Amino acid sequence: MRIRVEHLSKKFGTFKAVDDVSLEIEDGSLVALLGPSGSGKSTLLRILAGLESADSGNVWFDDEPATDLHARMRGVGFVFQHYALFRHLTVEQNIGFGLDVRGVGKQTIKRKVAELLGLTGLHGLGGRYPSQLSGGQRQRVALARALAPEPRLLLLDEPFGAVDAKVREELRQWLRRLHDEVHVTSIFVTHDQEEAFSVADRVLVVNKGRIEQGGPPTEILDNPETEFVARFVGDVNVFPATIAGNIATAGSLRARVLGDVPTGPAHLVIRSYDLKLWREDPGIATVQRIVTFGDRVRVQANVDGAGPIVAFFPRRSSLLRGIESGCRAQIEVTTARAYPAESSSLYPMSTTA
Amino acid sequence: MSEPASAVALPVPEAPPRSRARSSSANVRRLGQFALGGVVLAYLGTILIAPLGAMAYEIIALGPLTALKSLLEPNALLALRMTAILTVLSVVINAVVGTLGAVAIVRHRFPLRPLINALSDLPLAVSPVMVGLAFILLFGREGLLASLTAALGIKVVFAFTGLLLGTLFVSLPYTIREVAYVLEELGTSEEEAAATLGASPFQIFFRVTLPNVRFGLAYGVLMTLARSVGEFGAVLVLGGSISGQTQTATTFIHDAIDQRATASAYGMALLLALVSIVLLLGLEWFKHKKHGGSR
Amino acid sequence: MKSTAYALEPSRGERIARHLTTLYLILIVAVPLLALLWYGVSDGLVSLREALASPVARQALWLTLWTSALVAVINLVLGTATAFVLVRYRIPGKSLLSALIDLPLAIPTLVTGVMLAILYGPESLLGQSFTNLGFPILFAKPSIVLALAFVTLPFVIRAVEPVLIELDPGEEEAAFTLGAGPIRTFRTVILPAIAPAALSASIRSLGRAMGEFGSIVVVAGNIPMQTLTAPVYILGEIESGAPRAAAAVSALVLAAALALHGLAHLIERRLGARHV
């Protein structure tokens, strides 16, 4: 099902949860709504589900107006962050609920439920109650339940937020594979960029109720259009800088920036992987700390006149030869971006994860 | 303390004064705990256990069978029947109203909500005698609505209707408060999920909401039951305790005491006490279930 | 209050159910109480003043007030202590004890009166000993206090218990590691947490005690100027055909009870105590 949203807005009191959002989602795609807490992504999702009403704007499902359609008529499957499984029903009854309320025959329900139990890897758990399941299992039941009535749209609200890291990774891969099989248009909300990028076809970055950028994951990574997107995604260093021509200067750090940036004060954004750092006297920076993370190395240095900088290298990189705490280093920036400085921004100097 | 320059054998230290102080403060603590426990036990013993024990002892001395046999006389049976009918009616009516009202209070937003909230708590603050008086002022001989009831041919005071109104009033809050509390704790996500799965409001209420509140509802129903059985002041005033007609189990006891019919009084009191204990067991059971039986 | 999701906005059936429920509440609760209040004060408090002119009435009100207040204080102190012991101490038969504490909620007040009459009556050893000591209990003021204490026993205990159970042991442990003794810890960590619940429950028990009737009418003897409480006085006025006086005094007591419950509610709201 294709989705079109135009000029959607929603306020809670004075708080603008969704601020004039317009977007289009292709049939059969798997889209991530990525953003920090409070960015409005869950509200947007709930409006699409019909769980929340918009103050203004329109929603179309396959070119038919859906704005005033009640949640139960939308054919939307919703997976809640904390599962919202019916605690007094068994797994089978949970999954079959959407079919049961529509009056589908018992035999058909039985068949469908068995299919879904197989699809979601929940064989043999049909007679259990939600309280007897693990977090990962509950989430899969929630998914199976949402899929049972064959919805034309699947919405997931931070589906993997409540489970631990290892299970989360498994569930992500599994969701991707499920989508490849089932092909229903799906949108999921997350604040975890790794999750968004590894699972989705397309990522919409949301901030303060607005969509900052939308596109395939690689595009967001390589061409962040706004400072927010650049800083939110990946490990970055940010410096206040001045632009002249296409060169940004921050203390003794100089970098060529992509795109056209107006002359004047700006924020220089450099990804931790986009720089080369090697030992050199006198150089422009002093190395502070070197930490090895398994297969990569993190080097923290202080750039003269600019402040702390963090660079990541693969462990065997030749650039690391001779680098030790206290030594001087030279830095070359491979790719950098700059965004005009807003007077009100009070971002910290460096935001590496 | 002097340290030898090269430590070959350090002198074994004496038990430091600190640990001795600690053990004595630990003793003080235990004494304090003992004292507190003793005070509490004395309190509960005097106020709660002693009267129960006295009643149990007296009944055993009298012979419980003798006491219960006195209940077989017609007046007693009629009184019990009256209490039973009043209780069943008030439980059913207040359970339905209570559940619907609780859903309205917790889930809906409407201008009269604070009023409904307040009204559902109000009966707990009113003395039963005043309840009886209030209804008499409405439906008594010179009552405000006396002409209405006369026209409808309904007798309220010194009749069944009065007893019912009084019982409904006093037992009203229990179900609505219990269900409202449980609903508040549950949150709306299961109901939202049901909506997205295509359930109608009717289906959501009966398949999701009601099953989820069932323990709170059961608890509230038992409380309503207990309160209805035990109601005295209002039914005394409104009913006049006319034996065989408007006498309830409680007013029966009251009359029996007045007439010094000890066996009857004790017998009925014993029966009501037994009923209360059974209800209490049910209450404790559902209280346990309410707080996370199924999660 | 949370906003209800759009999807769960009440349907027509739900709204009708709500209207019916509202109607029921208004008819059963609001109308009678309004009638009572109106009747009691409609002649500009003349009836009230007349009723209060009688020393019997004044004495009854005073008796009700001080016995209820005394019991409220007893509940506050001993109820909190009981909750503490129930939650923190290990005693044999705790669950039985805990169940018994709820008994006053389930047992008819009249039966309570009967039990007390048996315990302290003229035929019991206890009753006789106290009478011989010149300190009679039955048909005297002490019986009122004992009855009220029984009837309101669960209030504070049940309100404080959940608070104690939910208390984060981390806070107390932090206090200990910082050197605080048990009393200091109690004052700084535990007391502020339980105070709103204990206080509001105690106030509610005051309101409840003021209206108590069934047990009092059996044990107190209802002697005017001695052991006649306000509710029994009101009954007397009704039975002697003076509904105006009865209504006036009722309005007074009702107003006081409502004020007390309102106060308790306010404390719970503001200071976050949970009331079930």
What this model shows, in words?
- The complex is a heterotrimer of chains A (353), B (295) and C (276).
- Chain A has 353 residues and is an alpha+beta fold.
- Chain A has 2 domains: 220 residues, Rossmann fold (3-Layer(aba) Sandwich), CATH 3.40.50; 117 residues, no CATH class.
- The C terminus of chain A is likely disordered.
- Chain B folds into 2 domains: 42 residues; 223 residues, MetI-like fold, CATH 1.10.3720.10.
- Helix content of chain B is 76%, strand content 0%.
- Chain B is globular.
- Chain C is mainly α and 276 residues long.
- Chain C has one domain: MetI-like (MetI-like fold), CATH 1.10.3720.10.
- In chain C, 77% of the residues lie in helices and 0% in strands.
- Chain C is built from 14 helices and no strands.
- The longest helix of chain C has 34 residues.
- Chains in contact: A-B, A-C, B-C.
- Chains B and C meet through helix 1, helix 3, helix 4, helix 5 and helix 7 of B and helix 1, helix 3, helix 4, helix 5 and helix 6 of C.
In short:
Chain A is of the alpha+beta class and about 350 residues long. Chain A has two domains: about 5-220, P-loop containing nucleotide triphosphate hydrolases (Rossmann fold, 3-Layer(aba) Sandwich), CATH 3.40.50.300; about 235-350, no CATH class. Chain A contains eight helices and 21 strands.
Question: What key phrases describe this protein's structure?
Answer:
heterotrimer; A: 353 residues; alpha+beta; 6-stranded mixed β-sheet; 6-stranded antiparallel β-sheet; 36% strand; disordered C terminus; C: mainly alpha; MetI-like fold
Tertiary shape of chain C:
globular
Question: Distance between the terminal alpha carbons of chain C, to the nearest Å?
Answer: 18 Å
Kindly report the CATH topology of chain C. Answer: MetI-like fold
Which CATH top level class of the largest domain in chain B fits? Mainly Alpha
Total DSSP E strands of chain C: 0
Largest sheet composition of chain C = none
In angstroms, what separates the terminal alpha carbons of chain B? 61 Å
Mean pLDDT of chain B: 87
Structural class computed from helices and strand pairing of chain C: mainly alpha
CATH topology of the largest domain in chain B: MetI-like fold
Task: Determine the number of helices of chain C (DSSP H or I, runs of at least 4 residues).
Answer: 14
The number of domains of chain B: 2
Order of helices and strands of chain C: HHHHHHHHHHHHHH
User: What ranges of chain B have pLDDT less than 50 throughout 5 or more consecutive residues?
Assistant: 1-7
Q: How many domains make up the coordinates of chain C?
A: 1
